[in-house]
Amino acid sequence: MKLLHIDSSVLGPHSVSRQVSAAIVDRLRKATPHLDVSYRDLTLTPLAHLSGSHLAAGQGAEPEAALQQDLAAGHAVLEEFLAADIVVLGAPMYNFTIPSQLKAWIDRILVAGKTFKYGAQGVEGLAGNKRVIVAISRGGFYGAGTPAAVGEHLETYLRWVFGFIGVTNPEFISADGIGVGPEHREKAVADALRAAGSLNAA
Pairing mode, if any, of strands 131-138 and 116-119? Predict the structure, then answer.
């Protein structure tokens, strides 16, 4: 069984989402014999954001020489995702949504004919055989029923993205309120790590 571990926080060792995603992977590694884990840090090896040249190449145009390496990197990211049985994703909230590095990765895995297709009945996701677990961290409180819920475009966006490609039940472990103060941060991290440690391994 293959697990793909992705981190997208720019904060390195100070990142809460990295801490929680690592705890999730540790839990699954201990519970699953012979788990094959691969890791990608989207801040150390960032993907370029999509350009007109990327889209033209996707439509069959001869890519510019300068684009060849990035297209190869995008293909490798897609194949890495397709090969994974489990995806563990560390995703902090930056200005109410995902980091731009994570958006660049998503742009490389949402590929018609690979992870979804259009048909007579509409869109069909092709990646529904994967388990996706997301560790999210948010500076404030954005849960359902909170005054700031309308501004939450991290979890809601990722639920839609993965649902679009067939993953209808992504799992989320949240550390909320980490920017409110030291006590809130400590409790949020402890609760998230506890949830990671008791995660269902099946």
Answer: unpaired
Whether 95 has a binding-site annotation, put simply, is yes
Longest dimension (CA), the chain: 55
139 annotated as belonging to a binding site for a ligand: yes
Q: What is the pTM of this model?
A: 0.94
177 is in an annotated binding site: no
Rg of the chain over Cα atoms, rounded to whole angstroms, equals 17
pLDDT in tens, 29-71: 999 989 999 999 999 999 999 888 888 888 877 888 778 888 9
21 annotated ligand-binding residue: no
165-181 pLDDT, tens digit per residue, is 999 999 999 999 999 99
Instruction: Check whether 94 is labelled as a binding-site residue.
Output: yes
Question: According to the annotation, is 169 in a ligand binding site?
Answer: no
State yes or no: 174 annotated in a binding site: no
Q: 53 to each of 61, 72, 101, how far by Cα in Å?
A: 9, 14, 19
- Please indicate if the annotation marks 116 as binding a ligand: no
Q: Which domains does the chain have, with CATH numbers?
A: 2-197 (3.40.50.360)
